[in-house]
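Sharing a chain and its predicted structure for anyone who wants a worked example. Both blocks are below, sequence first, tokens second.
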Amino acid sequence: MRTAYVKLAPKLALAAMLAACSTTASRISERQGVFDGYPAEVREKIRAGQVAIGFSPEQARMALGEPSRIYSRQTEQGEAEIWSYQDRGPALNFGLGSYSGGGGTSVGAGIGIGTGADALEKLRLVFEAGKLTSIETTRPR
């Protein structure tokens, strides 16, 4: 029985990680027709997981995925939408244990997938009138 848990735990962990991931390639394939209509330099940036000034929200989302947070800014100059991307440092934990004694054997397994407790903002995108006008990144201290 213990062997079955040992073989099954890594497979379950991998399946859970893959199910939770959204990759640039998967986002492109979901909107392949739209992606194919972009200029070559835009397609190249998106494939590389990068954005550029002038990108639409759809292009940025295709390149980077969903933002962690979206803010609204209102100033005398007008309105802006700010997308925040955070680095949460994904964590995958699993453990196996067994105990033999008192005439019996026990086996246990556990899998934990988390996003990390300390999410650090790594990128902000500022959109005005439907176009990316500012890219803000954090610098190491």
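Comments welcome. The chain has one domain: 2-90+116-137.
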